[in-house]
Automatic annotation (TrEMBL):
It holds the Pfam family GATase_4. PROSITE patterns: GATASE_TYPE_2 (PS51278). Keywords: Glutamine amidotransferase, Transferase. Residues 59-326 form the Glutamine amidotransferase type-2 domain. It comes from Nocardioides pocheonensis. This is Class II glutamine amidotransferase. GO terms for molecular function: transferase activity.
């Protein structure tokens, strides 16, 4: 279920249980094998995309899985929540949340405006909505409208309680990405973003594979080959799992766009340097697993290894690394 305000087992390898150090299996930038779209339904895109020089603004993410319902403020603490929300100085083009409701369905809210200017954002952030959830702060890429249909998380009701997806990156050119979609997937598009097309491609691959884990791995296989300079950082929530993707080692940070927002470089928020811009960190606690994109400068977080993808089981908080099927 999705609201607008103001306008199972798969091919995985066990890594660690909650409370232990986690180091997901490395997800290579390029898999061996033939070039192609990876879609059994067929597509017109068969050649690798050349590096794309444009540096596009992107977003910020937070994901959490706990043993009982928690709020975003519970996850970050008052100071951490204030610092995360302050990132709207850059990422103020929309906000959204998704969570696992009491009936295990995935619920979500999106608003095409700044979180810091919207009382509904703080109101939801202080509610213990569920045991698992994600938050997205958007910095819109040039040329993409600030609108509800372009605001993350993107959702699909699906037959199993729904799925929500939030992306921190940019995949270009968008028409080339859309070319990976079948006609049925294109019909489900509502907005203009590359992120929604990324989401639809993941669901398309999952439907063809008959498994979400395998579908995500297959989609990433195609995307790292066809768009080698893109950031594919993302969080995806289902009634049973949270997926975290940290693939961006060849992506260029939007330093010029950042400098246009501030009078002096030292005013740019923490975690927005060229080296740290696409970083993701995690922490495992006895009762929770958290993952966050760069922007909080505090102790207790461990960097997620480069070019990896992992999944957290919502019932056990067990973290496993996604691997390519043999």
């Amino acid at each position: 279920m999705h609201d607008h305000l103001g306008s199972t087992a798969g091919p995985s390898q066990h890594v660690a249980a909650a409370g232990r150090s986690v180091c997901p299996l490395r997800f290579p930038r390029r898999f061996p094998g033939e070039r192609g779209c990876g879609s059994r339904a067929g597509c017109a895109i068969v050649e690798a995309s050349p590096p794309h020089p444009r540096r596009a603004p992107v977003c910020r993410l937070l994901g959490y899985v706990a043993d009982q319902p928690v709020s975003v403020v519970d996850v970050l603490g008052e100071d951490g929540f204030a610092r995360f929300t302050a990132l709207t100085a850059v990422h103020g083009d929309g906000w959204g949340m998704a969570w696992q409701a009491e009936d295990r369905s995935v619920r979500s809210v999106t608003v095409p405006g700044s979180a810091s200017a919207d009382p509904a954002y703080e109101g939801l952030a202080r509610k213990r909505l569920g045991r698992a959830g994600l938050v997205h702060l958007r910095w819109a890429s040039s040329g993409l409208e600030i609108a509800t249909t372009n605001t993350h998380p993107f959702t699909d009701d699906g037959p199993a309680g729904g799925v929500a997806f939030a992306h921190n990156g940019h995949i270009a050119p968008i028409p080339r990405l859309e070319g990976l979609l079948t006609a049925a997937s294109r019909e489900r598009l509502e907005g203009d973003t590359d992120s929604e097309r990324y989401f639809r491609f993941v669901l398309q691959c999952a439907e063809e594979e008959g498994d979400l884990d395998a579908g995500l791995v297959r989609a990433l296989d195609v995307l790292v080959r066809e768009f080698p300079t893109a950031s594919l950082n993302a969080l995806m929530l289902t009634p049973d799992q949270m997926f975290a993707v940290h693939i961006n080692s060849s992506a260029a940070a939007p330093q010029r766009a950042l400098l246009e927002l501030f009078d002096r470089p030292e005013e740019i928020p923490s975690g927005h340097s060229a080296e740290a811009y696409f970083a993701m960190d995690f922490r495992t606690l006895p009762d929770a697993v958290h993952v966050i994109s760069s922007g909080l400068d505090e102790e207790g977080w461990t960097p997620v290894p480069a070019d990896t993808a992992a999944v957290v089981d919502l019932a056990t908080r067990r973290v496993t690394a996604l691997r390519r099927p043999a």
